[in-house]
Amino acid sequence: SAQAVTIALSGAGGQIGYAALFRLASGDLLGPKTPIHLRLLEIPQGVSAAEGTALELTDCAFPLLQSVTIDTDPNVVFEGANIAFLVGARPRTAGMERSDLLSANGGIFGPQGRALNDHAADDIRVIVVGNPANTNALIAQRNAPDVPAERFTALTRLDHNRAVGILAAEADVPVDSVSGITIWGNHSITQYPDLSHAIVAGSPALDMVDPRWARGAYIERVAKRGGEIIEARGSSSAASAANAAIDHMRDWVTGTRPHEWTSVALPSDGSYGVPNGLISSFPARSVNGQWEIVQGLTIDQFSRERIDASVTELLDEREAVNALGLIPS
Ligand code: NAI
């Protein structure tokens, strides 16, 4: 069998952790030949729930699962990690200002970035799921100066998968007849699900659905899907978020399908006018284990305005965490 892989996951006692860990342990990420070590990070209040999940993992008797450990110290948990899912974050509570939210999360993602810097394996790949995901990823990345910047990403694959599913339903085609969708910008209400280059059953999506819907209600539906789920389910998306995080990491390690792209929040190289270093969502392909931003897409005025609006929000968040001293300059 292949060499064992060490997967760290923070927020292991939470609902996304519960939805993700069994799939990771069963081989959904790296296939049926790669043994897995799971390293679970929690805060003291979450340890008991994580321990319960670990008991259930034992009770699954997964042949690939070599070990499960739980700790509250990121320096311990990230030791030798090849892959890190950073899920645990400080949620916004009533009356909390944005600066409070950013500084609470800076207190989490700064130390976790430093711990990854000092302890993770050389091939570490990081995905941040905990919100505000793009800016939390930026904080972690900037606190890990010895890790190549492009190893830090944030999850917009859930938005991407939602965009695929909702378009396929509208066009009444199977999801695998849909391609070429991009989520641009921030994982927030300002995100821009872009159908300009999308293909539905071999034809341009904008010929297959009402273009006014594509540039109106559709964008809002995708961006507000999280709220729709909370309304219906009584709690936020968990299985779909875990699924998207696994899709993201699997594609990163094993490659995207030929001729297709997905959406990934990664450090900008200046493509499409997005300022350098900002962790923003782009169309991307994974080639030889590295994300490459898809180049050369035409951006019309509608798209330009939407992308710029979301990027402006990310710049504001970066400025705020800079002002709070959360990222070393
Ligand atoms: P949850 O509240 O069920 O679980 C979060 C867990 O993280 C808790 O067990 C908590 O104790 C733990 N935690 C908090 N701070 C921690 C720290 N410093 N270190 C380690 N563990 C810590 O929340 P859920 O539903 O699992 O969601 C987790 C995060 O994912 C939230 O921030 C949520 O907003 C975000 N999210 C992001 C999505 C995306 O598309 N980017 C989609 C869905 C959720």
Give the key terms:
329 residues, L-malate dehydrogenase (NAD+) activity, Lactate/malate_DH_C, globular, single chain, alpha/beta, 12 helices, binds 1,4-dihydronicotinamide adenine dinucleotide, Rossmann fold, tricarboxylic acid cycle, 3-stranded antiparallel sheet, Malate dehydrogenase, L-2-Hydroxyisocaproate Dehydrogenase, Chain A, domain 2, 43% helix, NAD, 6-stranded parallel sheet
Explained architecture:
The protein is 43% helix and 19% strand. It is of the alpha/beta class. It folds into two domains: 5-154, 3-Layer(aba) Sandwich (Rossmann fold), CATH 3.40.50; 157-315, L-2-Hydroxyisocaproate Dehydrogenase, Chain A, domain 2 (Alpha-Beta Complex), CATH 3.90.110.10. The strands form four sheets. Strands 3-2-1-4-5-6 form a six-stranded parallel beta sheet. It has a three-stranded antiparallel beta sheet with strand order 7-10-11. Strands 12-13-14 form a three-stranded antiparallel beta sheet. Helix 2 links the parallel strand 2 and strand 3. The protein is globular, with a radius of gyration of 19 Å. The mean pLDDT is 97. Residues 10-11, 13-17, 41-43, 45-46, 49, 87-89, 91, 108, 129-131, 133, 155, 158, 187, 236-238, 241 line the site of 1,4-dihydronicotinamide adenine dinucleotide (NAI). This is Malate dehydrogenase. GO terms for molecular function: L-malate dehydrogenase (NAD+) activity. The active site is at residue 187.
